[in-house]
Amino acid sequence: MRLPSLLRRTPFRLTLLFLALFATAASAILAYVYIASAAEARAQAEASVQAEADILLAIYNARDIDALNMALIERISRSGPYVYVLTDASGAFISRNLDASPIDPAPDTRAGQWGTFRLTETDEAGRVERPQGLGVDYELSGGEHLFVGQSLGDTEAYLMRLTQALWAAMGMVLVLGASGGLLISRNVERSMARLNKVVMAVQDGDLKARAEVRKSGDELDELGQGLNQMLDRLEASMTSIRHAGDAIAHDLRSPLTRMRAKLEVALIDAEAGKVSGTDALGVALDEADHLLKTFNAVLAIARLQAAQGTPDPVRFDAADLASDMAELYEPAAEDKGLEFGAEIEAGLMIEANRPFLAQALANVIDNAIKYTPVGGAVMFRARRRSSGEVEYSVTDTGPGVPEADRERVVERFVRLDNSRTEVGSGLGLSLVVAVLEAHGGRVQLDEGPGVYDGFGPGLRVALVLPPAPAGV
């Protein structure tokens, strides 16, 4: 038989576990209290009986058996807490308030023989009781035997009341603990049910589902907030994937169509003998290379976004990378008829993935050279900001990017109207942004030097990176 859901919850099982541990500890404490109280009561009763016996022995030793008998008669008449039995050497009773001595004296009990026994008493309601008693038997010098004892009925009644009170208290704790466990389990079950409802909704494809946060600051709220943040990122990732898939399909449709058309024309020309098969294959290879570049850029962006941080970082001087990039692109700028300049500070230590950062710089410099008309200029700088951050910047005198389009131009597959005539996929700046975000940096787009002599207003692209930690 399957237990109800409430009873199978972890908080309720933990409550039962703690209750079991408490019950075990309480039982041990109860046993200790009972044993200690019984031992203390016995010790007090034994001391009281011993004191009474010492008094009677002193009377006997000071005078004789008659004086002892008179003392016992006087005590019995007062109905005190003690019981007495005095017998002569032959075992005949001299005085007593018991039917017989409850202890069978052993030979030579001058030092006293202790023992326990049961008394028969009648309480105020007329009920017969048999409490336990404690007593000692002494053999006197004349052969007589003196027994002195005391009832432990009051002590037993006290221990009984104490035991009942402790059991009642433990029962109340167990009941309250079980009730509290049920209440806590019920509340936890409701909270977990809300979270499970969200999880089930997400499994069914509803990425808009979110957990309710009660703002109580407890663990369930932290779990709900973490779940919501995870779902936010998941929804953003899925949206990005859908957008990327749609954009790839849209952006690749044209080159694929163009490739097919060129291949078809090349096939017709080859069949007609107008071109060779080698030329037709060259056309196909050029178009395939363009498609591969697009896919590689998409894969690089996906890898950076999935890394959640800098992939394989190394410590190096950003100035060295800047010098290499300037040396690499200066001839390309001069071949196009552009003026290329570089201003590079030394000692710009950073921690980064050098190949990814080099690719980002290559994209920015290549864009600047591509979109700057002949006769223009491109300036490449590497410096340390007053904030301590390291900045790469590329400034050109090309047509620039309108301020309203600067946020949009860094998105995937976005190409402005003035760039449609150039070869490209619209992924260059998207990759740059992904690289900088993975390194904890940022990309800033600003206007260039402005319109001058028919050039401009230009564009300034800054790649800002955090400096390497000190002392590393």
TrEMBL record:
EC number: 2.7.13.3
Domain of life: Bacteria
Sequence intervals crossing the membrane: 165-184
UniProt-annotated location(s): Membrane
SMART domains: HAMP, HATPase_c, HisKA
Record keywords: Kinase, Membrane, Phosphoprotein, Transferase, Transmembrane, Transmembrane helix, Two-component regulatory system
Protein's recorded name: histidine kinase
Main location: membrane
Stretches assigned to the Histidine kinase domain: 247-469
Stored PANTHER family: HISTIDINE KINASE, SENSOR HISTIDINE KINASE YKOH
GO cellular component: a single term: plasma membrane
Source organism (scientific name): Brevundimonas variabilis
One Pfam entry name: HATPase_c
Entry keyword annotation includes Nucleus: no
GO molecular function, a single term: phosphorelay sensor kinase activity
InterPro entries per UniProt: HAMP_dom (IPR003660), HATPase_C_sf (IPR036890), HATPase_dom (IPR003594), His_kinase_dom (IPR005467), HisK_dim/P_dom (IPR003661), HisK_dim/P_sf (IPR036097), Sig_transdc_His_kin-like_C (IPR004358), TCS_sensor_his_kinase (IPR050428)
Catalytic activity field: ATP + protein L-histidine = ADP + protein N-phospho-L-histidine
Residues annotated as domain HAMP: 186-239
Gene3D superfamilies in alphabetical order: 1.10.287.130, 6.10.340.10, Histidine kinase-like ATPase, C-terminal domain
